[in-house]
């Protein structure tokens, strides 16, 4: 079957289009031909127009059926005739008669469209003849692509395992042969070929994906930032940037990257390193709701500490020193009043406190109040406590306000030890007197430090109690107003927020949550109104923002320790970039409760991993 027949039988819809194109100049055909024949030296080929026009304009499909390919050649001949005609005019200096340029331009456009049309039809016809072959070809390509993705999936999962378990990257060099031996029937195992170099690249792809996801979140949401210095990599000072944000399910803590300072590690240089990393990712300091650090002067110095520079960028940011560290120091201060060294016992207490990573900001003020009360009742007379209008102003160091030795809370085992020593003469009156004096000094010194250093009367902690869903009926909207007014990233319609808050306090759908407070507010955010819209959208936005403020540096300290745990002797030459990638991916997995074999790898990530090149 020739082209004309294929055109007629398989592509009938193109015939009216060809006819319409010719009709655009068909009504002027005679004038056009007469003028053309009187102004050209080659009328023989120009006559092709009349033949083609008459064939198509008479709506004779048989003409196309008989000579579809010849029709295409005649169009090409007509185009050549017009080009030669215009060349003759230019050579002789004659001008085209009126309307001829318009006719010629129209015909040239028709020729171009018609040629493209016929070429397209011919190409489609040839494709139809080979349709089954092409279909099989693309099915084979698709199958190979799926196989390749399965192989890269295996490569990437093993890279995740290396990250999770702190394994040497050199181990990857042996795994290809090992997997082939272990799984001889597996085609994926036979194609597995990820050595240390490729595994390093896959770790970077995973980390880049995690970082991109986190960055897109904190560009739009409030977050907390924490950092601490580490000299794990030789003389280079490393500053992991730990980000805490709400991912609409719970509060997660992840490492964004590891920054380094240029020059000495002053407060200004550390801040510049942090600012550089955030700015390069398009993250605004206005979304930083809290800055967490240790209590060193380089971090909290009023003039040139890192916190001071952060507050210049965002005056409303909450500066969060670490209460765990302060309690440790308080215990050391108290121990300094003793005649013995209790450092080892204090370290145990410190690490116990460090493990409290769940969000308890809404409980912090009560917890600190309980610590102070617990210290007071151990050595201060009940009468002095009950008469005080403010517990923090009690003169606890005054001997007249302290309990007698027999009433001091020193523990039953300690008291039994003292009684036994008194009975056998090993502990005389002087030794026992020194002990009780030391006990009072310990309690008083520790209590004085706690009251002076811990945020026991911090306004933010007082208002943070509004997070407590269990006590919602007792909370005040003034606390919500405090956070909206203080933090620009939590701005919203206060009137709408107040209405939502009032409904939230009496909503029977909100029971007593069993989950942590950050997850409880995520659950409240999924409650819908009668129109299917989030019922507490403004209120939940504020509460999620408040929930990212840490009560301590416990979660950050845990991540800072990962830097030291991952830079081991087996990884002595690891670059900062790779270390940052490993920590970033590791913290993302851990914050989501994932392990290497439960991580879901989507097609987009696998495609990026497949495209990785050294």
From TrEMBL:
It comes from the Eukaryota. It holds the Pfam family Myb_DNA-bind_5. Residues 17-81 form the Myb/SANT-like DNA-binding domain. This is Myb/SANT-like DNA-binding domain-containing protein. The lineage of its organism: Eukaryota, Metazoa, Spiralia, Lophotrochozoa, Mollusca.
């Amino acid at each position: 079957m020739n082209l004309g027949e294929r055109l007629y039988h398989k592509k009938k819809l193109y015939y009216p289009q060809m006819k319409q194109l010719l009709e655009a100049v068909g009504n002027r055909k005679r004038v056009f031909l007469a003028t053309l024949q009187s102004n050209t030296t080659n009328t023989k080929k120009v006559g092709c127009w009349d033949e083609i026009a008459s064939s198509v304009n008479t709506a004779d499909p048989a003409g196309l059926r008989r000579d579809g390919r010849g029709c295409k050649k005649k169009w090409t001949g007509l185009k050549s005739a017009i080009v030669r005609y215009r060349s003759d005019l230019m050579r002789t200096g004659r001008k085209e008669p009126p309307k001829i340029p318009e006719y010629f331009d129209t015909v040239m456009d028709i020729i171009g469209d018609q040629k493209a049309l016929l070429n397209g039809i011919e190409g489609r016809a040839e494709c139809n003849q080979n349709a089954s072959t092409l279909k099989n070809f693309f099915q084979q390509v698709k199958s190979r692509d799926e196989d390749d993705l399965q192989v890269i999936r295996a490569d990437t999962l093993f890279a995740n395992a290396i990250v999770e378990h702190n394994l040497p990257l050199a181990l990857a060099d042996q795994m290809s042969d090992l997997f082939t031996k272990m799984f001889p029937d597996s085609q994926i195992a036979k194609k597995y070929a990820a050595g240390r170099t490729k595994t390093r690249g896959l770790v970077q792809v995973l980390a880049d994906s995690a970082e991109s996801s986190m960055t897109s979140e904190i560009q739009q949401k409030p977050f907390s930032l924490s950092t601490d210095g580490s000299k794990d990599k030789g003389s280079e000072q490393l500053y992991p940037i730990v980000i805490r944000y709400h991912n609409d399910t719970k509060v997660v803590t992840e490492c964004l990257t590891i920054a380094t300072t240029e020059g000495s590690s002053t407060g200004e240089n550390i801040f510049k390193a942090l600012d550089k990393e955030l700015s390069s990712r398009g993250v605004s300091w206005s979304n930083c709701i809290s800055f967490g650090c240790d209590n060193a002067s380089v971090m909290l110095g009023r003039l040139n500490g890192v916190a001071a520079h952060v507050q210049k960028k965002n005056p409303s940011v909450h500066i969060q020193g670490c209460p765990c560290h302060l309690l440790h120091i308080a215990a050391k201060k108290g121990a300094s009043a003793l005649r013995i060294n209790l450092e080892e016992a204090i370290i145990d207490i410190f690490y116990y406190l460090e493990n409290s990573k769940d969000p308890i900001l809404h409980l912090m003020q009560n917890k600190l109040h309980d610590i102070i009360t617990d210290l007071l009742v151990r050595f201060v007379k009940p009468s002095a406590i009950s008469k005080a209008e403010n517990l923090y102003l009690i003169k606890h160091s005054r001997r007249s306000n302290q309990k007698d030795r027999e009433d001091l809370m020193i523990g039953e085992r300690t008291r039994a030890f003292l009684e036994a020593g008194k009975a056998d003469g090993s502990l005389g009156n002087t030794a026992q007197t020194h002990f009780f004096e030391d006990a009072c000094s310990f309690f008083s010194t520790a209590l004085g430090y706690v009251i002076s250093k811990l945020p026991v009367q911090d306004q933010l902690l007082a208002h943070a109690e509004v997070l407590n869903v269990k006590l919602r009926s007792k909370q005040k909207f003034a606390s919500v107003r405090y956070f909206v007014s203080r933090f620009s990233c939590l701005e919203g319609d206060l009137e709408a927020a107040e209405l939502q808050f009032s409904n939230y306090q009496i909503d029977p759908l909100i029971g007593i949550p069993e989950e942590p407070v950050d997850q409880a507010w995520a659950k409240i955010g999924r409650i819908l109104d009668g129109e299917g819209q989030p019922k507490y959208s403004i209120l939940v936005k504020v509460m999620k923002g408040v929930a990212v403020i840490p009560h301590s540096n416990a979660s950050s300290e845990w991540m800072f320790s990962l830097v030291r745990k991952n830079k081991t002797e087996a990884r002595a030459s690891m670059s900062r970039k790779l270390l940052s990638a490993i920590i970033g991916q590791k913290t993302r997995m851990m914050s989501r409760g994932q392990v290497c074999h439960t991580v879901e790898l989507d097609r987009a990530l696998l495609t990026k991993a497949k495209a990785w090149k050294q």
